[in-house]
Amino acid sequence: MANKNKEFNYGLYAVVAFTLVAAILATTTVFTFKNKYIAFSPEKVATNYVDTIVQKGDGYNAYKFALVSKSEKYGDFIRENYIYPVIWPGYVSGGDEDANKAAKENGFDTDAHKSDATKNDDGSLAGNVAEKMYPYYVELMKTVSWDDYDTFFSSYMERLVAVRAEVFGDDYMSDEVFFTALEANVATFGDALTGTDTVYAADGKTTISEATVGLYQQNFGTSQTAEVIGEGGELVETTKLVYKLVTTAGEPEEFPFDAYKESLDPDELAKYGLTADDITAVQLIPVTVSTEEGTELATVEVFVAQIGNSWFVDSTITDMSEVYTRLMSGVTAPAAE
Questions:
Q1: pTM of this prediction?
Q2: What is the pLDDT of residue 13?
Q3: Is 323 exposed, middle or buried (0-12, 13-18, 19+ CB in 10 A)?
Q4: Can you tell me the distance from the alpha carbon of 292 to that of 9, in angstroms, rounded to the nearest whole number?
Q5: Rounded to an integer, what distance in angstroms lies between the CA atom of residue 249 and that of residue 300?
Q6: In the predicted model, what is the mean pLDDT of residues 292-303?
Q7: Beta-carbon neighbour count of residue 261 at 10 Å?
Q8: Whole-number pLDDT of residue 21
Q9: What radius of gyration, in Å, describes the C-alpha atoms of the chain?
Q10: Maximum distance among all alpha carbons in the chain?
């Protein structure tokens, strides 16, 4: 496919990300105002979960609709279970507070671990890290996918530590480093599916990134006339491959509730701050993915569990592999250097 991920301006992305990512993650709540209303409808929860994955391959953010986000901020869940134990050797999620505090004081995110390269980076080296991580991100999407977030986060973190040390020449590591690289990769993968328009700098002439043709455009697009912004900031008529993917929920199906509760892993639920008794109902909702013309591409059986008045996708038994395999397996990336 025409995947021009090398043209993604990681340096520019990193500069912006370093100033915004902390604020973005700090405000990432269990649900946004809009999502609170979505949570009252099992069909909407199921559809939004699938649609987030379908449109941009973004299983990472799809978990905002899942049980993992029920009891705490999603970003904090990732920090507690996959980042802090690495950057603070000896840290144990849910462990002794004094021991964890001591581990934090000697972590790899302290100034003592910063080289001059880290202290003086303008975002270019951080962008280089993200670029070097992208082929591995694509590999994980093919071999693991976001269905297994535990392996995804753990494996990504392990590789990121090694790649960053290679680029910066030190062992500094922080949650900001993790989220900046990962979110850049998530965005690049999404662009590889959807394609991108040419992006210009504020002067309207300097090209930041060239237009690319995405996998979805190749597989599902039809040639249509469209207006894009030209080099001088003017609207220019051009021909583009246009597509639309639609996700539709079918009729909810009742699922044997007692059998469902017995199948739940108490240790997994404990990570989310839940027990099986917190769940009061379960439904199985088929969600179909189609082109705008009505061609069916995949159907997923989404399990949604009710806690209080809200519904959440149970990602531990919802299998999205059909979507990842059928729709996204054609995404490629340069071999890791």
A1: 0.86
A2: 46
A3: buried
A4: 32
A5: 10
A6: 96
A7: 14
A8: 42
A9: 21
A10: 64
pLDDT at 37: 79
Given a contact cutoff of 8 angstroms between Cβ atoms, the answer to whether 298 and 288 are in contact is: yes
pLDDT band at 117 (very low <50, low <70, confident <90, very high): very high
**Helix axis angle, 42-56 to 175-194, nearest 10°:** 80
CB atoms within 10 A of CB 27: 10
Centre a 10 Å sphere on the Cβ of residue 4 and count the other Cβ atoms it contains. 16
Write the secondary structure of the chain as one string of H (helix), E (strand) and C (coil): CCCCHHHCCHHHHHHHHHHHHHHHHHCCCCCCHHHHHHCCCHHHHHHHHHHHHHHHCCHHHHHHHEHHHCCCCHHHHHHHHHHHHHHCCCCCCCCCHHHHHHHHHCCCCCHHHCCHHHHHCCCHHHHHHHHHHHHHHHHHHHHCCHHHHHHHHHHHHHHHHHHHHHHHCCCCCCHHHHHHHHHHHHHHHHHHHHCECCEECCCCCCEEECCECCHHHHHHCEEEEEEEECCCCCEEEEEEEECCEEEEECCCEECCHHHHHHHCCHHHHHHCCCCHHHCCEEEEEEEEEEECCCCEEEEEEEEEEEECCEEEECCCCCCCHHHHHHHHCCCCCCCCC
pLDDT tens by residue, 228-254: 666 666 777 777 899 999 999 999 998
**Half-sphere exposure in the Cβ direction for 323 (13 Å, CA):** 29
pLDDT of residue 32: 46
Average pLDDT of the residues in 130-145: 97
pLDDT tens-digit series, residues 104-115: 998 999 999 999
pLDDT at 87: 97
In this predicted structure, the answer to whether residue 207 has a pLDDT above a threshold of 80 is no
What is the b/e burial string over 8-25, where b = at least 16 CB atoms within 10 angstroms of the residue's CB? bebbbbbbebbeebbeeb
Measured between alpha carbons, how far apart are the two ends of the chain, in Å? 20
Token pair, residue 235, equals 């609207």
